[in-house]
Protein backbone atom coordinates (compact mmCIF):
# COMPACT_ATOMS: atom_id res chain seq x y z
CA UNK A 1 0.00 0.00 0.00
CA UNK A 2 1.16 3.57 -0.61
CA UNK A 3 2.74 5.73 2.03
CA UNK A 4 0.46 7.18 4.65
CA UNK A 5 -0.12 10.86 4.09
CA UNK A 6 1.65 13.21 6.45
CA UNK A 7 0.79 16.22 4.30
CA UNK A 8 -2.76 16.66 3.02
CA UNK A 9 -2.28 19.47 0.48
CA UNK A 10 0.21 17.72 -1.81
CA UNK A 11 -0.93 19.54 -4.98
CA UNK A 12 -0.24 16.34 -6.95
CA UNK A 13 -3.89 16.22 -8.02
CA UNK A 14 -3.96 19.71 -9.44
CA UNK A 15 -3.60 18.27 -12.95
CA UNK A 16 -6.81 16.20 -12.65
CA UNK A 17 -5.18 12.91 -11.66
CA UNK A 18 -5.00 11.04 -8.40
CA UNK A 19 -2.67 8.40 -7.05
CA UNK A 20 -3.82 4.85 -6.44
CA UNK A 21 -2.47 2.65 -3.67
CA UNK A 22 -0.04 0.99 -6.09
CA UNK A 23 1.49 4.42 -6.88
CA UNK A 24 -0.04 4.64 -10.38
CA UNK A 25 -1.85 7.82 -11.34
CA UNK A 26 -5.26 7.85 -12.98
CA UNK A 27 -7.73 10.50 -14.06
CA UNK A 28 -10.07 11.65 -11.32
CA UNK A 29 -12.99 10.80 -13.60
CA UNK A 30 -12.01 7.12 -13.96
CA UNK A 31 -14.57 4.49 -12.98
CA UNK A 32 -12.22 3.25 -10.26
CA UNK A 33 -12.02 6.69 -8.67
CA UNK A 34 -15.80 7.07 -8.93
CA UNK A 35 -16.29 3.75 -7.12
CA UNK A 36 -13.79 4.74 -4.44
CA UNK A 37 -15.59 8.06 -3.98
CA UNK A 38 -19.01 6.43 -3.67
CA UNK A 39 -17.70 4.06 -0.99
CA UNK A 40 -16.08 6.98 0.83
CA UNK A 41 -19.34 8.96 0.70
CA UNK A 42 -21.26 5.96 2.04
CA UNK A 43 -18.81 5.61 4.92
CA UNK A 44 -19.24 9.32 5.71
CA UNK A 45 -23.04 9.03 5.74
CA UNK A 46 -22.78 6.10 8.13
CA UNK A 47 -20.60 8.32 10.34
CA UNK A 48 -23.40 10.89 10.43
CA UNK A 49 -25.93 8.16 11.23
CA UNK A 50 -23.75 7.04 14.14
CA UNK A 51 -24.25 10.49 15.73
CA UNK A 52 -27.90 9.56 16.36
CA UNK A 53 -29.32 7.70 19.37
CA UNK A 54 -29.68 4.00 18.56
CA UNK A 55 -29.50 0.60 20.20
CA UNK A 56 -25.94 -0.34 21.17
CA UNK A 57 -25.98 -3.43 18.95
CA UNK A 58 -26.90 -1.40 15.87
CA UNK A 59 -24.09 1.07 16.56
CA UNK A 60 -21.59 -1.79 16.90
CA UNK A 61 -22.70 -3.26 13.55
CA UNK A 62 -22.34 0.14 11.87
CA UNK A 63 -18.86 0.72 13.29
CA UNK A 64 -17.78 -2.66 11.91
CA UNK A 65 -19.34 -1.73 8.57
CA UNK A 66 -17.25 1.45 8.53
CA UNK A 67 -14.08 -0.60 8.99
CA UNK A 68 -15.11 -2.97 6.20
CA UNK A 69 -15.91 -0.06 3.90
CA UNK A 70 -12.41 1.25 4.53
CA UNK A 71 -11.13 -2.19 3.50
CA UNK A 72 -13.31 -1.99 0.39
CA UNK A 73 -11.96 1.46 -0.46
CA UNK A 74 -8.43 0.17 0.00
CA UNK A 75 -9.14 -2.77 -2.26
CA UNK A 76 -10.54 -0.47 -4.93
CA UNK A 77 -7.48 1.76 -4.66
CA UNK A 78 -5.07 -1.09 -5.45
CA UNK A 79 -5.98 -2.94 -8.66
CA UNK A 80 -5.83 -6.71 -8.17
CA UNK A 81 -5.54 -6.52 -4.37
CA UNK A 82 -7.97 -8.11 -1.91
CA UNK A 83 -8.74 -6.51 1.46
CA UNK A 84 -12.47 -7.15 1.84
CA UNK A 85 -12.96 -10.80 2.73
CA UNK A 86 -16.03 -12.96 1.98
CA UNK A 87 -16.52 -13.32 5.75
CA UNK A 88 -17.57 -9.66 5.80
CA UNK A 89 -20.53 -10.51 3.54
CA UNK A 90 -21.45 -13.39 5.86
CA UNK A 91 -21.40 -11.00 8.82
CA UNK A 92 -23.91 -8.79 7.01
CA UNK A 93 -26.08 -11.85 6.28
CA UNK A 94 -26.08 -12.70 9.99
CA UNK A 95 -26.95 -9.13 11.00
CA UNK A 96 -29.75 -9.09 8.41
CA UNK A 97 -31.22 -12.31 9.79
CA UNK A 98 -30.92 -11.15 13.40
CA UNK A 99 -32.51 -7.73 12.94
CA UNK A 100 -35.15 -8.82 10.43
CA UNK A 101 -36.37 -11.64 12.69
CA UNK A 102 -38.06 -9.24 15.14
CA UNK A 103 -39.65 -6.94 12.57
CA UNK A 104 -43.28 -7.28 11.49
CA UNK A 105 -43.89 -8.36 7.92
CA UNK A 106 -44.27 -5.50 5.49
CA UNK A 107 -47.82 -5.02 4.22
CA UNK A 108 -46.93 -2.19 1.84
CA UNK A 109 -43.95 -0.19 0.63
CA UNK A 110 -42.50 2.16 3.19
CA UNK A 111 -41.32 5.70 2.68
CA UNK A 112 -37.75 6.72 3.55
CA UNK A 113 -39.05 8.60 6.58
CA UNK A 114 -39.82 8.36 10.27
CA UNK A 115 -37.18 9.18 12.82
CA UNK A 116 -34.09 11.13 11.88
CA UNK A 117 -31.95 8.02 12.46
CA UNK A 118 -34.20 5.88 10.23
CA UNK A 119 -34.20 8.54 7.51
CA UNK A 120 -30.39 8.71 7.62
CA UNK A 121 -30.26 4.91 7.35
CA UNK A 122 -32.37 5.20 4.19
CA UNK A 123 -29.89 7.73 2.80
CA UNK A 124 -27.12 5.22 3.55
CA UNK A 125 -29.17 2.55 1.74
CA UNK A 126 -29.46 4.65 -1.41
CA UNK A 127 -25.78 5.64 -1.36
CA UNK A 128 -24.87 1.94 -0.93
CA UNK A 129 -26.91 1.17 -4.05
CA UNK A 130 -25.10 3.94 -5.94
CA UNK A 131 -21.74 2.61 -4.76
CA UNK A 132 -22.79 -0.85 -5.91
CA UNK A 133 -23.65 0.52 -9.37
CA UNK A 134 -20.25 2.22 -9.52
CA UNK A 135 -18.51 -1.07 -8.69
CA UNK A 136 -20.59 -2.89 -11.33
CA UNK A 137 -19.60 -0.24 -13.89
CA UNK A 138 -15.94 -0.73 -12.97
CA UNK A 139 -16.39 -4.50 -13.34
CA UNK A 140 -17.46 -3.83 -16.92
CA UNK A 141 -13.94 -2.57 -17.62
CA UNK A 142 -11.73 -4.40 -15.14
CA UNK A 143 -11.68 -7.71 -13.33
CA UNK A 144 -12.73 -7.42 -9.68
CA UNK A 145 -13.45 -9.96 -7.00
CA UNK A 146 -17.14 -10.68 -6.31
CA UNK A 147 -16.94 -9.61 -2.67
CA UNK A 148 -17.07 -5.80 -3.15
CA UNK A 149 -20.27 -6.00 -5.22
CA UNK A 150 -21.84 -8.56 -2.89
CA UNK A 151 -20.92 -6.54 0.20
CA UNK A 152 -22.52 -3.35 -1.11
CA UNK A 153 -25.62 -5.23 -2.24
CA UNK A 154 -26.05 -6.84 1.14
CA UNK A 155 -25.24 -3.61 2.97
CA UNK A 156 -28.04 -1.76 1.20
CA UNK A 157 -30.44 -4.51 2.32
CA UNK A 158 -29.13 -4.23 5.87
CA UNK A 159 -29.56 -0.44 5.86
CA UNK A 160 -33.22 -0.92 4.87
CA UNK A 161 -33.74 -3.33 7.75
CA UNK A 162 -31.86 -1.08 10.18
CA UNK A 163 -34.02 1.88 9.10
CA UNK A 164 -37.03 -0.17 10.17
CA UNK A 165 -35.33 -1.05 13.46
CA UNK A 166 -34.45 2.60 14.05
CA UNK A 167 -38.05 3.69 13.37
CA UNK A 168 -39.09 1.48 16.27
CA UNK A 169 -36.36 2.70 18.64
CA UNK A 170 -37.41 5.51 20.95
CA UNK A 171 -35.30 6.85 23.81
CA UNK A 172 -38.47 7.33 25.91
CA UNK A 173 -39.24 3.60 25.80
CA UNK A 174 -42.17 3.86 23.37
CA UNK A 175 -42.21 1.90 20.12
CA UNK A 176 -42.54 3.57 16.71
CA UNK A 177 -43.39 2.19 13.31
CA UNK A 178 -42.56 2.56 9.63
CA UNK A 179 -44.13 5.26 7.47
CA UNK A 180 -46.22 3.44 4.89
CA UNK A 181 -46.81 4.59 1.33
CA UNK A 182 -50.43 5.50 0.70
CA UNK A 183 -50.83 3.86 -2.66
CA UNK A 184 -53.60 5.35 -4.80
CA UNK A 185 -54.19 1.90 -6.26
CA UNK A 186 -54.65 0.35 -2.84
CA UNK A 187 -56.82 3.22 -1.62
CA UNK A 188 -59.14 2.86 -4.63
CA UNK A 189 -59.53 -0.90 -3.99
CA UNK A 190 -60.96 -0.39 -0.51
From TrEMBL:
Domain of life: Bacteria
Occurrences of domain Cobalamin adenosyltransferase-like (ranges): 8-165
Keywords from the named record: ATP-binding, Cobalamin biosynthesis, Nucleotide-binding, Transferase
PANTHER family reported in the protein's UniProt record: CORRINOID ADENOSYLTRANSFERASE, CORRINOID ADENOSYLTRANSFERASE MMAB
Protein's name according to its UniProt entry: Cobalamin adenosyltransferase
GO biological process, one term: cobalamin biosynthetic process
NCBIfam families found in the cross-reference section: PduO_Nterm
Reaction equation(s) it catalyzes: 2 cob(II)alamin + AH2 + 2 ATP = 2 adenosylcob(III)alamin + 2 triphosphate + A + 2 H(+)
Entry similarity comment: Belongs to the Cob(I)alamin adenosyltransferase family.
Gene3D superfamilies registered for this protein in UniProt: Cobalamin adenosyltransferase-like
Subunit-structure text: Homotrimer.
Its EC number(s): 2.5.1.-
Region: Disordered, residue numbers: 1-23
Pfam families the record matches: Cob_adeno_trans
Natural source organism: Rhodoferax saidenbachensis
SUPFAM superfamilies named in the record: Cobalamin adenosyltransferase-like
Chain intervals with Low complexity compositional bias: 10-23
Any one Gene Ontology molecular-function term assigned to this protein's record: corrinoid adenosyltransferase activity
Amino acid sequence: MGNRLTQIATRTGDNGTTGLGDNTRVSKDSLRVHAMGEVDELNSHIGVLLCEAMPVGVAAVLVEVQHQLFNLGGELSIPGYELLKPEAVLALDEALADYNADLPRLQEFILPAGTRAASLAHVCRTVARRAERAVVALEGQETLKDTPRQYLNRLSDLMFVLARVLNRHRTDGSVGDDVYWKSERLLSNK
